[in-house]
Amino acid sequence: MRKITILTGAGISAESGLGTFRDEGGIWTQHRIEDVATPEGFVRDPDLVHGFYNARRAQVKTATPNAAHRALAALEADFDGEVVVVTQNVDELHEAAGSRNVLHMHGILTGALCAACGHRWPAPTVMETGACCPVCVAPTARPDVVWFGEMPYFMDEIWAHLETTDLFVSIGTSGNVYPAAAFAQHAQRAGADTLELNLDPSVNARDFAAARHGNASVIVPQWVSEVLKAQASG
Ligand code: APR
Questions:
Q1: Any idea what DSSP says for residue 179?
Q2: ipTM of the predicted structure?
Q3: Does the C-beta of 194 come closer than 6 Å to ligand 1?
Q4: 181 vs 176: CA distance, rounded Å
Q5: Domain residue spans in the chain?
Q6: Which residue from 115, 111, 127 is spatially nearest to 47, judged by alpha carbons?
Q7: Integer distance in angstroms from the first to the last C-alpha of the chain?
Q8: Which CATH class is domain 1-16+65-106+152-234?
Q9: Is 106 marked active-site?
C-alpha cells in the first residue's frame, strides 16, 4: 500500500473538547446555519457571524490534540508511502499534533479573508465588522472559512488524491455534507479500499467496505498501530 487518504470531521476533535455539529447539543442545535454559516447570513448580520467565529476561535486556542490526531501524525512520519489528511475541521489540531500533509477543505478559524480582493492573512482573535483588508483597505474582512453554498478549497487536489489512493479512511464525520460525503464512493470507484472509523455508523456507512466504531482516541491509534505493524512484518 503506497498511499492513504484520510478524511476527518468534527468527531476527531470531540475528545479535545471541541463541539461537533450534529450530535446531541451540537453546534447546529445552538445556532442556525443560515444565520452564521452562509454568505447571506454574513451580509444580514456580520456582528452575529463574527461573534460566532470569535467564540470558536477562542475555544480552539485552548484545545490540544488528542491521541487520534497524534496517531495520524505518527502514521505520516512512519508509513512507507504518502499519507494525506483532508479535513473538514477548521481547527488546526492535526498540525499541532505534527501532521504536515493537511488540506483544510473548509478553511481555518485562524485565517482572515478579504471578500473584496481575496487577500488572506492571520486573523486577530477577535474579528470585528468593518475590519479593513491590509492590502486593498476595503472594510471587507471575513473569517477564512467555507460557508454553505461556497466551493470548498483544494477540490481539484482532493479528487486527484481520491483517484490515486490505495486506502480511503473516514474519521469522525457524519457523512451529511457534500462533497466530502461522496469521497468514499469516488475512491472506491477508482479502486481504493475504504474504512470508516467513527463513534457511530455515519449516514453513508454503506459506502465503506469496512468500519470500526468507538471513540477516535481509541480506535484510530489501534488502527495506525496495525498498519505500521503490518508494514514492519513486510
Ligand atoms: N470519536 C469518533 N467519532 C465521534 C466522536 C468521537 N469521540 N464524537 C462524535 N463522533 C462522530 C459522530 O458520531 C458523528 O458521526 O463524529 C461525527 C460528527 O458529525 P458532525 O457533527 O456532522 O460533524 P462533521 O461530519 O464534521 O460535519 C461536516 O458540516 O456543518 C458543516 O462545515 C461543517 O465541517 C462541518 C461539516
A1: T
A2: 0.99
A3: no
A4: 6
A5: 1-16+65-106+152-234, 19-62+108-145
A6: 127
A7: 11
A8: alpha beta
A9: yes
